[in-house]
Design a protein that fits this description.
Length: about 140
Amino acid sequence: MTGVAAWHLWVILGLILAGLELLGAQFVLLALGVSALSGALASVLGAGLNVQLISVAITALVVVPLFVRKIHPYLLPKTPYGTLGSGAETGQLAKVIIGSGGKLAVRVSGNEYPLRWEGETKPAAGDTVRILSVEGITLCVERVE
């Protein structure tokens, strides 16, 4: 059995970087993994280590911005999402319900939250409200007529 060729190391590095992308690196590690494959290609073509490193660097300069600025945003959901308080729920419409403690509440994304209303008229169960803001776990709402 022969030793490990340089291109093997580049492919292994590329696979490790692509796998680490699963940790949520915004496509940077995936782009660097693809760049490492250019080092493997240069090695297969017989280039020395310096040319392999230059090949990886030039490919990374092109591929990283392409992946991060063009491909990654294209794959993101078009509707706002996030955890409560991130601002994604502001402006959403919701129905008022009677919460588990017998008090008025609002159900958002399958979860029940206490509410505080803005305006003069207190909402009733079944009313539609618009979420204005979030204070802790309390949703500030206004009735929608």
